[in-house]
């Protein structure tokens, strides 16, 4: 026993050293300076007295004076340390000095902690790395959440911004675009708007700009009067559009800062000069500031006026405008909605044919912009929070295990009069410091993580361009860090307060955790980790299965070996329908002559890209009229062949199907089913877009969206319908082998026909399809990464708990072995505990998944959030990984040498 | 606890406390003397013991410690705890 006592005392010296350094506040320091010398003298006197007495004792026993002094000194131990310790104790202010004492204790704790952490670098590095990963992941995801969901839109008084949508009687939640005449009525008559502005909806609108490096296509957004004013965006130079300019023939343009810089070389006198777009001379009237972005329309190069004059596109039945508005000061959205509703009812009475089924609704712009992103981001947020929680539990378990080694230290401090609260605080300071360093490293991790996140993030992530670091983010990281420190510091601290003084002084005292309670705490923590990992695994599993389902979607066409790009024919040089038709024919002919090209075709809108040009179909059959909405696609050339869309019956378009000949159309199966039921639709006549079409063929359905939605479609021939408008056709070229060199060859052919035309947005058809499921891929990838980290951490946690238990049961296992227990029995003892922990964790994990799984619902596709296959697979993975985590400690347990185990007691 | 016990009823200086503990426990618990004084000072601050400077047998300046009422109470509590603990250990040892 004696040796232990000695060791304890030496430790004691160390601990007390920690209290030596004091940074008193200045005033106190002054005061104490006077008394410090006196204290030092007293302590010296007292200790010298002791040494003298001891020396006398030895001298009496016959030692020489020198020898006696030496023995006395040796027996005393570290004289200097004791002196300093005593001085320190007396110099310290009273405990209840309040704030100052708190400061001092804190400083002490920090110093002590630094030393502790430096002394066990293994623990420190593992703990900091684990926490840095957890905090980093959370910070990165939160920065996206912060910018997208929590920050207001980047406009002045953005809370007053609204969007106006058309909804329908049967679908009041719809958010459809608005017709120009309706828009004008609302703009003129609703008083609750400070501004209400229209902008062109389709993103595909572009203009060709012929510069010194040849022609390029730039994004042009037609907008109405009041558009910039709605956003409170003022021009850097010049002015914005006027009401009188909302017409087709107003050739004025506002440049983005980007175009002003790159095309006009930041010329300050650019206003009033001319810019040729699509061959037409536009007068530059203004330049916008670089800070202006439109969250509704996205990146734009130039703005041109939106034609709002009656006629052409502007009928009440043609819905195509996006509408943004700013509420007048003091007007609530409900008041504005009421005013809008009054006009909606009036229009319904006035124009029953077009308006009696329409509703018009206002939605706060913020809500509309973040709508698609928020479920995804909150799910990722939850997932990263779970990873952090698991990390905390791991570090907590680590700290508990470390408590074993420190039990004696704390026992001594308690014995020497440290209050328990003080020790708890010491523990918390330690965990805080680890968490703080973890947080700092985590911030760096987050920075890298955020770049990756943004690089991976789908185009559909709203406001991705705004994502960045700010104060709120730092505050978040800080709180997460503090919370983390509290969470993982708490368990060891609780363990400490439960420990008994004598317990820790017993020679064989191992730890608080040796006791049943300690083991239970660690078991519960490990089970908790398992259950959290189960939740993440199930989430990742379900997202993975939905992603696989998405990829398996029967699209109805073959995207491989197909290259697509757009060609826009400027109205100036291709005003006549005949010239446009001729262009496409010539162009496709030349493309077909390129070696390796199989087919060349074109369409007005590609499959899986959603709805576009939705018109109405009417068929007058024997039982009266059949009407339904139908997607219109204008095609040219071998469109069906390039994409491998098969014919069910009938024929494709022929050269003889031209303007003037019988107007012919091809329907898809869905349209035939809706119009004619089981009967063949061949040779029937249907009304679409005010024209009668004779059905000459029926083709297989192709997916309208990446989710595989099917909708009725009618295909028309550009050679017959090219006079309706200047259709922007998307070319589809199929090749016999992969041809990365195809686009340059096509460019050469194109410039041979018209050197000012642009091969716009070339891409492979497989990428077109993949882009549509980019968001699912993104969420699924991140979830899988989080789940993998969680699984690894949980396995490490389980392993840690079990191997710790084995080391604690060393003695017991040794006795059992000595009494003849076979390896398999030993194995069973250890495995049983592991199995119990795993089973409990799994049960709670599954319960948790059932509870939280529904949040995933909107992100899944063709799979239930309670998919039994996923659950079974996750259970299998957990059992497998837990098995590994159990196997190693169990195997080690069977290797216990009974002699050693017993002797070590 | 041992220190408190040693001071119970006797005013002593540190050296005597060390000697008392050695003598009573048959040197089994050899207090490393370096740690005795910090412990004394700490207890003094906590009000369990009080100290005064006096003159020793050879008229040297010596610091004498004595139990305060608080200290007596503390000793009492700790004695009970200790007794409970030793009984438990003894019972355990008796059965094995």
Walkthrough of the structure:
By secondary structure, chain A is α+β, with helices and mostly antiparallel strands. Chain A is built from 27 helices and 24 strands. In chain A, strands 5, 6, 7, 8, 9, 10 and 11 form a seven-stranded mixed beta sheet that branches. In chain A, strands 1, 2, 3, 4, 12 and 13 form a six-stranded antiparallel beta sheet that branches. The two termini of chain A are 14 Å apart. Chain B is an alpha+beta fold and 96 residues long. Helix content of chain B is 60%, strand content 17%. Chain B has helices spanning 2-7, 14-24, 33-46, 69-95, and strands at 12-13, 49-55, 61-67. In chain B, strands 1-3-2 form a three-stranded antiparallel beta sheet. In chain B, a hairpin with a 5-residue loop joins strand 2 (49-55) and strand 3 (61-67).
List key phrases describing it.
heterodimer, A: 905 residues, alpha+beta, seven-stranded mixed beta sheet, six-stranded antiparallel beta sheet, 27 helices, 17% strand, B: 96 residues, three-stranded antiparallel beta sheet
Rounded Rg of chain A:
39 Å
How do the strands of the widest beta sheet of chain B line up side by side? Answer: 1-3-2
| Strand segment tally of chain B | 3
Describe the global form of chain B.
Answer: globular
What is the terminal-to-terminal distance of chain B? 29 Å
Largest interface: A-B, 36 and 29 residues
Look at the structure and give the mean pLDDT of chain B.
76
Low-pLDDT ranges of chain B? none
Main sheet specs of chain B: 3 strands, antiparallel
Rounded radius of gyration of chain B (Å): 15 Å
Oligomer: heterodimer
**If you average the pLDDT of chain A, what whole number results?**
81
**Could you estimate the helical fraction of the residues of chain A in percent?**
40-55%
**Mind summarizing the main beta sheet of chain A?**
7 strands, mixed
Would you kindly provide a brief summary of this structure?
With 905 residues, chain A is α+β, with helices and mostly antiparallel strands. Chain A is 54% helix and 17% strand.
